[in-house]
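WARN retry 2 of 3 for item q-0093 after timeout on previous attempt; input resubmitted unchanged.
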Amino acid sequence: MKSKQIVSMIFLILVSTLVTQSMQLVYADDNSTENSASTIIHSNTTSTLSSTTSSKIDEHRSIVGQKIAEQRANVDKKITEHRAEVLKKIAEKMKILGTMHTNNSTMSTKMLEHKTEIAKKLLKIKLM
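OK item q-0093 returned
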């Protein structure tokens, strides 16, 4: 019974150590020169591996930063294209509305002229 307890205690210690180390890796301070991730690696391996890991992390950050910048540029480009398209459609609609307004004015003028002609003809008929 005691050997099972000892084994379970050892297992518990190992699991808690692994969890602690993984949490240190996840929440490592990015600004520190020797963060917990490099400390863990350095204690287990040589400093060459630590610098290689550090350079890989820097390279990965650079790649991710570049991809983010490209995505932002693509989004900005799409927004600009969409705005231009919307402005073009608005201009087309305004042109159509302007034409309609001109046509309405022309029709109103023609209708007024026609009514005037009819009134003149009716006046001539009444005078006869």
